[in-house]
Amino acid sequence: MKKYNFLYKIVPSVQLVNTTFQKNILGRITKMKRKVLSAILAVAMVATMMVGCGSKEETAAPAETKTEAPADKATEEAAKTTEAGGKIGVAMPTQSSERWINDGANMKAQLEALGYEVDLQYAEDDVQMQVSQIENMIAAGAECLVIASIDSSALVNVEAQAKSANIPIIAYDRLLMDTDAVSYYASFDNEGVGTAIGEYVKTAKDLEGARAAGESYTIEFFMGSPDDNNAVLLHRGVMGVLQEYLDDGTLVCKTGRTSFEDTCILRWSQETAQQWCENYLTGFYADEDLDIACTAFDGFAYGVKAALQGAGYTAENWPLVTGQDAELMACKNILDGTQTMSIYKDTRLLAEKCVTMVEAVMKGTEPEINDTETYNNNTIVVPSYLCTPVAVDKANLEELIIGGNYYTKEQLGL
């Protein structure tokens, strides 16, 4: 600035202007410094408040939690459940049967409501497809597997893979055989299903009265798939009731096919059941009516119905026809008289019990179990929860099925 002092002498007004300019600049700088300092202090205060709030949240006293509003508690619990959730693989056998569609849907809905991610797959009765689906579930990070098998003997190796990866397995409705990788089994009492079918036949045909009167009824059997342990147990239950009447001639099986090996139908095929019934009616019942078609599945009952209609049976000589699963079509057939009864198995309840097992293995707790002796899979006895099956016919269908909100009147055409 010294080199320009001569200007101030020559032009005093310039000095005045310059001095005024300097003062203005300095004043502005001072104000800016104050603003910057204020901003820094403000940021520091906000940061301190945020840290303080965070500390209070982490060390909240139990007393404060107790006084939370119910809605806040529910939200907090839901958040905890979601955080605790994981990926669950659900492998179902087929969508060709209504019951498996319902099983899968119920399972998925209940697990998702608890915060789990669900990978639901149907293998359409293709054994290798089910193996591949389970392998993919393992590779994709499933933390628990629920398996309703097509052929459990084909799953032994993939189940071993799951065990090696510390992935627990729950057998759903069909017991997984020859493996120690299964943790629990959720099903209906499958021998009880057979017993209920047998008891229904015994009561409906009054077999005790027929025996006393020296009368007899003809009967043919259509049992489940040989690769399904449930089918073996169901046949055992049926024969536990009816064998004595076969032995004394009160029941007459004209084909002579009463053993499980002679009556089992691979993959629970409706088409095979229809073909068998058509052959039986042609070969053994040309001159005599079939009185009882003892089938283990609603799908078999549909096949039998088609065969009977093809052979000219009417309401006057229509046989007693049993089934299992209380599918919508079966219930309609019960109402119109072309199927006599079915076994009502509420898949909502079965899914619920299976979900409690999933929760248990995911959280390291114990689920409710009511059978620790029956289900030996040739390697271990699998802890199980067995739901109770109920026989349904025209007399109690409205009470059980409609009253239980399983199907509506509109669905049943009522």
Number of strands: 12
Tell me, briefly, the overall form.
elongated
Report the oligomer: single chain
Mean pLDDT: 85
Strand order of the largest sheet: 2-1-3-4-5-11
Distance between the termini: 107 Å
Largest sheet composition: 6 strands, parallel
Radius of gyration: 37 Å
Number of helical stretches of at least 4 residues: 17
Q: What structural category arises from helix and sheet content?
A: alpha/beta
Sheet-strand content, in percent, reads 5-15%
Low-confidence stretches: 1-82
Order of helices and strands: HHHHEHEHEHEEHHEHEHHEHEHEHEEHH
- The helix fraction, in percent, is 40-55%
Can you describe what's shown?
The protein is α/β, with parallel strands linked by helices and 414 residues long. Helices cover 53% and strands 13% of the residues. The chain has helices at 5-10, 12-58, 62-66, 70-84, 98-113, 127-139, 156-164, 190-204, 207-213, 229-247, 260-263, 270-284, 298-310, 328-336, 347-363, 397-402, 409-412; strands spanning 87-92, 117-122, 144-147, 169-172, 182-188, 217-222, 251-252, 292-295, 320-321, 341-344, 384-387, 390-393. The strands form three sheets. A six-stranded parallel beta sheet has the order 2-1-3-4-5-11, sandwiched between helices. It has a four-stranded parallel beta sheet with strand order 7-6-8-9, with helices on both faces. The relative contact order is 0.09.
